[in-house]
Amino acid sequence: MNAFPAVDNALPNNPTAYEQKLSEILTISQTMLAHARRGEWPELTQIEKRRGKLLEDFFSQTITPEMASIIEEVIRQVMDVDKEVIALGEEMQKQMGKDLREIGKGKTATRAYTENSR
Fold it and tell me: Which CATH number does the domain housing residue 43 bear?
């Protein structure tokens, strides 16, 4: 299931260079989300660097009024993907914090047992 069908409809069959770049930016964003869903954070970080460079390059060019509606749609979708990635990252941080607290409790219990068994 394509979660972003509007982009497929927004981009013409013979996309220009800027439309190809926008499509690549969205594809990378979707790949980042897939990595986040699988908990592959190092991979996500590497891909995000590439996307950042593409965004920087894209917005360094002149944007014409004709490009505005397509750009707006793609950026909106990228932002939606980013929101989900951020939410997944926050959930992962919470879980890691919980896991670390449990490890700490285990170490404390082990230490107390060791000290009292002498």
Answer: 1.20.58.380
| Domain annotation covers residue 7 | no
pLDDT tens for residues 30-81?
Answer: 999 999 999 999 999 999 999 999 999 888 888 888 888 888 999 999 999 9
Residue 44, both tokens:
């996500």
Q: What CA–CA distance (Å, rounded) separates 3 from 31?
A: 12
Q: Residue 8: what are its φ and ψ, rounded to 5°?
A: -60, -40
Nearest to 9 by CA among 81, 85, 77, 80: 77
Q: Are 27 and 53 in contact (CB under 8 A)?
A: no
Q: Within a domain: residue 96?
A: yes
